[in-house]
């Protein structure tokens, strides 16, 4: 009953309800649509706010507390594509390029899933390390780089040149908008500290939940419009998009415990490990692996894993953490 109560509490949170409203808008073919500049603006705001608050928290906690779990997060980001690639390639019988593209998305992370998890933990009074945003910042690039390298190796076997595009991919993975803003804002927050936070708190803290609600409304619309693609991706990817997050989530929680995080922090590392990117990874993959099928990697990450995580997954990862910590 405890896990059912947790799932119910999560489903009734404003973030999830606005996501459901967006899904309903898409399914009922409403003409509700966000202008592209507004969507980009909301994304930029959320990434900067997350990074800045994480940087302030790192300044308060000190590097000595952060480095070990952050290193574990980087390792997870790099290793998840390595084990999911053969599952997709041989279990799902996908092409090497498609398998690499999907693996990169699942090694990478979803900032909005992370925010939903922090909101949920706050709502049920489960404490967590305030510097957990650092894990979000360091997991994205390794996964994209590993996924692109896997894809380029397959391309190279087919006799195509890969050096120049691999270099472009590395540039995108390190300096792409999402990672650049997250890491940049993290550094700014670490340099400013608590004194700097007080100056921008009315902008980055107070309106944050409202901006998140708007963003999730838009994500609901986008995910709803991709539900038709579920017929194309087949039962294998449908199962993959649910089972793999559960495995990765449990692995993230376990590593969080090993590196000394408290229960809430380990839950957040599990959530990040279970999430799949739909902002940074698609941009990098579209440029670096143009032969990969967007229907496969976007539908699996956005229409399957993202809704599963923000509705059912987050309470499940917390329950896994509770079992490990009991």
- Counted up, domains total 1
Largest sheet: none
CATH class: Mainly Alpha
Structural class: mainly alpha
Structure summary, number of beta strands: 0
Distance between the termini: 17 Å
Radius of gyration: 19 Å
Give the overall shape. globular
Elements, N to C (H/E): HHHHHHHHHHHHHH
The fraction of residues in strands falls at: under 5%
The CATH architecture classification is Up-down Bundle
> How many alpha or pi helices?
14
CATH topology: Na+/H+ antiporter like fold
Mean pLDDT: 87
Helix content: over 70%
Would you kindly provide a written description of the structure presented here, covering whatever features stand out?
- The chain contains 14 helices and no strands.
- It is an all-alpha fold.
- The longest helix has 32 residues, at 294-325.
- The two termini are 17 Å apart.
Task: Write out key terms for the chains shown.
326 residues, mainly alpha, Na+/H+ antiporter like fold, globular
Summed up, what is this model?
The protein is mostly helical.
List the helices and strands and how they pair.
Elements: H1 2-11, H2 14-27, H3 36-61, H4 63-91, H5 96-107, H6 111-123, H7 133-157, H8 163-175, H9 177-204, H10 208-225, H11 230-258, H12 263-274, H13 280-288, H14 294-325
Helix pairs in contact: 1-14, 2-10, 3-9, 3-10, 4-5, 4-7, 4-11, 5-7, 5-14, 6-12, 6-14, 7-8, 7-9, 7-13, 8-9, 8-13, 10-14, 11-12, 11-14, 12-14
